[in-house]
What does this fold into?
Amino acid sequence: MIALIMFLLLYFGKNFGMSSNLRTFCTICGAGKSNEFFNFDWKTQQWNLMVSAGAIIGGALAAHFLSTDSSVAIHPDTITKLQDLNINSAGVSYLPEELFSMQALMQPKVLLILSIGGFLVGFGARYAGGCTSGHAISGLSNLQLVSLYAVIGFFIGGLFMNHLLLPYIL
Amino acid sequence: MFKSEAASWFRIYEMFQFNSFHMYGIIGSALAIGVLMIQIIKRYKIKSAYGEPIVIPDKAMSFSRYAYGGIIFGLGWGLAGACPGPIFTLIGAGFYPILVVLVFAILGTWVYGLIAKKLPH
It folds into this structure.
């Protein structure tokens, strides 16, 4: 499926990458005036915007009409490990309720986790010139060596967070 | 994206714990088909829908920007458990706290744009 969308975008003369949309939003909001990095014709990016709009619609359809049970059957060892970190919704819900429920959002710590996480994703994706879709799928598909550097970087960052920082954060 | 569970924080966490093949299967299969497809496009010089040759721009050659940017992205990925694609899926699915992640991801992109020239690339 993911590869099919990439083919369609290439076929219509576009490139596939989700994080480009973040830059596009900045431009639509007028960031082009303050900085040349955002000064491009955002209409050239409309197909990637369409993919993200499609992802929203797809998410809505899948969650409301195609799923009776959206719990995620992760590995039992992972569930135990998360329970040790006080994430008790592991294996029961789609996202950890401790982080993604409206009640949790009231806690400054959770708000901070989501904000910092989001900021790092946005900043890092643009610095690296792509995210999971742009590098791990589009870039590696085109056998780009630099995409391999980026993906290795993703995993260094992700593993460091997962194993060394998360246990203290959660 | 929703049904494959690639949008789930749990799956990302599990991936970094190396406890399941799930995420590697999703990325790996998309990659395998992708490599094949691009090789076919290049080999047979398939034209786009507008009759122009398909040109995939090579990513700019550099090491530091991909390494530093990648690590920063990875830290965020591991923390928020969402990369830019699934953020949109989760909004659609009605997990509204993810909007916080989206707003800050846009902010992060904007800050990068502001200081890009000062960073090693």
Observations:
- Chain B has one domain: 9-118.
